[in-house]
Amino acid sequence: MRTFKTHSLKFIIILVSTSAFGQQLSREQVVQIALQNNQLIKAAEFQVEYFRQLKKTGTDIGKLTALWMHGQYNSLNQDNNLTLTQSIPFPTAIGAQVRLGKEQVTGAQKSLLATQNNLVFEVKSAYEQLLYQEALKKLLATQDSLYTDFARASSLRYKTGESNLLEKATAETQLLEVKNLARQNEADIQISQTRIQTLLKSENPIIAGDILARQIPPAETSSFQNNPQLDYLKQQVIISSQFKRLERNKIMPDIIVGYFNQSLTGVQVINGVDTYFPRSKHFQGFQLGLAIPLWFAPPVARARAAAFQEEAIRKNAEYFETSLNGAYVQALQEFDKNQASVTYYENSALQNAELILSQARKAYRSGEIGYIEYLQSLRNALTIKSNYLLALNQYNQSIIKLEFLLGKL
To answer: Residue 128 domain-assigned?
Structure first.
């Protein structure tokens, strides 16, 4: 029992520490939290439930009409009459309404997938940007250390008369420039954190890991036809087509069925014999009829309007598909460009940057080169490293864009 309390206390301490200072989450974990907490997803889920409930109304035949009549409708005697009537839509109209409800549920489900795909894209993009900014923060810290050494050495050389004031001022200015870049990057990190926390509906900051080159989606899934937004728009075409069928079927007459139960107080001739029937004696029967519109223009116009609406939605879907095709081709081109850039840096440029840094520091300390050559070497090497991080971020972002277009959650 004491061991359980100890472990529980440790867990609470870890939980409090995690809540106060953030927690390290992978890309997959961030995505899952967003899908669970984001309010747009919850709204889309409620929309699915709305259409599921609405589908149950497809067989609605309206309200039963009950009329009670009392008075002298047959003779001077007071009689009673109860009439029940029900207007039922034509069976084909009911079937069309049921099918429309099913398609609307499917449409809401596909809208949910499209919303999830959009959210995942935003979360992945923001998370990848945060990885890049955190990596840049480390690089800027390295630059700060190098330029701090450079400024310290320049200040010492100036005091001993080995250099002039220009070298000292240049070194200090470069150091201040790096510190300014670090402050700007820190602000960018906070902006990215706020964006991610908003998407996740979380009050805790996210601790990102190291930025790494991602893998391109497998070739067998490389088809933008799986894009959820395109799938949703195609479903809207189906829904509009079914709605058009419903409007056409509404032109058909409604079927009316009825029942009546009434008294006919008075004398009736039954088989040649006068027979008196009191009010307690009731007569009953059934009714069957059709409700036919006298003016066909309005329902016909609604059916035609639904047909035009279907064509409009179809054209929107076709335009989106064409645009999606162009965006997919462009994304592939961006990926190829960024992949070539990352390959260049990883195969040669980064090694050269390390060599430039080490050799320049040795040469400057031994007096083989002046501060101008040394400063230029530092800038070249650090620019290569900075550009590599930028290229790596662009490469990963291009893969995220491809996953978004392919509908890979």
So the answer is: yes
Residue 363 pLDDT > 60 = yes
Here the tokens at position 81 are: 């009459």
3-state helix vs strand vs coil in the chain, percent to 5: 70, 10, 15
Alpha carbons 391 and 122: distance in angstroms, whole number: 19
Residue 262's nearest CA partner among 281, 276, 282 is 282
pTM score above 0.90: no
Nearest to residue 367, comparing CAs of 229, 173, 162? Answer: 162
State the residue for tokens 């056409």.
248
Which residues lie closer than 8 Å to 88 by C-beta, 6 or more apart? 61, 62, 94, 254, 255, 256, 257
Biggest CA-to-CA distance, the chain: 146
Question: What is the rounded (10 degree) CA torsion for 372, 347, 129, 143?
Answer: -20
Dihedrals phi, psi of 64, to nearest 5 degrees: -75, 135
CA–CA distance, 131 with 137 (Å, rounded to integer): 10
In one-letter notation, the amino acid at residue 38 is N
**CA 96 from chain center: how many Å?**
31
Q: What DSSP string describes 123-153?
A: HHHHHHHHHHHHHHHHHHHHHHHHHHHHHHH
Rounded-to-integer distance, Cα 290 and Cα 293, Å: 10
CATH of the domain at 30: 1.20.1600.10
Closest to 61 (Cα-Cα) out of 87, 95, 40, 25 = 87
Please say whether the dihedral angle defined by the alpha carbons of residues 355, 388, 218 and 130, taken in this order, is positive or negative: positive
- Can you tell me whether residue 292 is helix, strand or coil? coil
In this predicted model, what pLDDT tens digit does every residue of 382-409 receive, in sequence order?
999 999 999 999 999 999 999 999 988 7
Over residues 138-162, the pLDDT tens digits come to 999 988 888 888 777 777 666 666 6
Does 14 fall in a domain? Answer: no
* Non-local CB neighbours of 264 within 8 Å, separated by 6+ positions: 74, 79, 277, 281, 283
Does residue 105 lie within any of the structural domains? Answer: yes
Angle between helices 91-159 and 39-55 (to 10 degrees): 180
Q: Which amino acid is at 289?
A: G
**Cβ atoms 303, 244 nearer than 8 A:** yes
Domain housing 148: 25-406
Asked, for residue 7, whether it belongs to a domain, the answer is no
Overall number of domains in the chain = 1
